[in-house]
From TrEMBL:
<keyword id="KW-0175">Coiled coil</keyword>
<keyword id="KW-1133">Transmembrane helix</keyword>
<dbReference type="InterPro" id="IPR036890">
    <property type="entry name" value="HATPase_C_sf"/>
</dbReference>
<feature type="domain" description="HAMP">
    <location>
        <begin position="204"/>
        <end position="256"/>
    </location>
</feature>
<feature type="domain" description="Histidine kinase">
    <location>
        <begin position="271"/>
        <end position="486"/>
    </location>
</feature>
<keyword id="KW-0418">Kinase</keyword>
<dbReference type="InterPro" id="IPR005467">
    <property type="entry name" value="His_kinase_dom"/>
</dbReference>
<dbReference type="InterPro" id="IPR003661">
    <property type="entry name" value="HisK_dim/P_dom"/>
</dbReference>
<dbReference type="Pfam" id="PF02518">
    <property type="entry name" value="HATPase_c"/>
</dbReference>
<dbReference type="InterPro" id="IPR003594">
    <property type="entry name" value="HATPase_dom"/>
</dbReference>
<keyword id="KW-0902">Two-component regulatory system</keyword>
<feature type="coiled-coil region">
    <location>
        <begin position="241"/>
        <end position="271"/>
    </location>
</feature>
<keyword id="KW-0808">Transferase</keyword>
<dbReference type="InterPro" id="IPR003660">
    <property type="entry name" value="HAMP_dom"/>
</dbReference>
<keyword id="KW-0597">Phosphoprotein</keyword>
<protein>
    <recommendedName>
        <fullName>histidine kinase</fullName>
        <ecNumber>2.7.13.3</ecNumber>
    </recommendedName>
</protein>
<dbReference type="InterPro" id="IPR004358">
    <property type="entry name" value="Sig_transdc_His_kin-like_C"/>
</dbReference>
Amino acid sequence: MRLRRTAGERRRPFGLRTRLVLAFLLVAAVSAGTTAALTFREARNAVLGTAQDTAVASFREQVQQLGIELPLDPTGLQDVLRDIARKGKPHPWYVYAEYGSIRASSAATPTSTVITPELRRTARSNPHGSFERVVKDGVPYLTIGMPAVFRTGASGVMPTGLVLFAVMRMSDEQAGVEALVVAARDGALPGLAIALVPALVAARSVLRPVRELRKAARSMGSGRLDTRIQVRGSDELADLARTFNESAGQLERSVDELQQAEARARRFASDVSHELRTPLAGMLAVTEVLDEDADRLDPDTARAVRLISAETGKLAVLVEDLMEISRFDARAAELNTDEVDAAETIRKTLEHRRWTDRVRADLPDGIRARLDPRRFDVVVANLVGNALRHGGAPVTVRLRTAAAADGTDLLVTEVADSGPGIRPDVLPHIFDRFYKADAARTRSVGSGLGLAITQENVRLHGGTVRAANGPDGRGAVFTVEMPLRTGETAA
């Protein structure tokens, strides 16, 4: 059965799988681009260098073989230039000559716009000549400047003042370079497409254990502590799976030990409470008799008797509360519901405990609800008793109905006092068992379980109870919300 994807499982546009594939392709692209760039550079240099070296060597040879007679004859010079141009290698040249104010060429015009002033200066100063690559109107040219010299000895030369220039188009070489670029591009794109396959395979092999780890973590979060991951291989992900399994096993053992200890503690509290009920019943009967005769005893003995009677009563309350909380822990508590008048039930609670003169009641009649009367009585009694002991007069009990966010009708009971309120650090623990807001207070009038029992009884009804301070920051307010279930509200 396939599980529906949750919000956290929806595919992200840049999830781990996408990032792994992109990283793999990026590495492949950088590698392919670097290789292509280096190959292109070497091939380009080889293509251009070969053509350039051939042209420079051929032109130098032609110039060195040139017989110069001074003064120059412009007509004869033009014929010489055309003869040199016909012998151009590896492509035909246009040859230009400059001698003082004389300008001649093998072309239709005596000068060329491709020859730069820098080449002219270099060619005149260097007896071995110079060359330069120039791009004019998108067309690449190789320009060579070579001075004509007289040899004065074995190695001596004397400039004649005549400088010859060769201009050669390099369109074929440029086309070859562009073909290299196209070949590199066309070779890189299929290579990246092919690299996508191992990228997907690698991402799948990496993500599989990650997905298994995510499923295992979610399974453990839902309470299945026996969840384990199958370990494959010996890489880092396999180490992670083994670490997870070891941690899960240790956690399972720790939770089992805690659950066993908690079960033993609950069983102990329940057993002790049961064992104490019988002797406490006898002690209560005796203390009641002693209370009746306390007035006939001497004062010191009377105080001792009354103290014993009061402490025995507290112990009896504690034992009963322990018995009650033990039933909740064992999930043995049951609801015996009946449709009752909620306001009348609260009035009976206040009357039975003789609180009617100490508590203000705002209890509209006609609100009927399906409740367990005994447990609802405990809820109201614990909240009102807590307000009377720890809050300040007057204490107010309010009853009303409300609608929940899902449209469910709720029975709302509020108990508010006029005391100093609950400190912010105490509020999160107010329903904890045996919690004392004042650590120095070792004795308490109640058992320390009243609010915890109240919360359990409310939960048993499917409701909630919360504690807060009044709007002005003074006085505690306890609000109980329970489903109305059935019943009618009077108009």
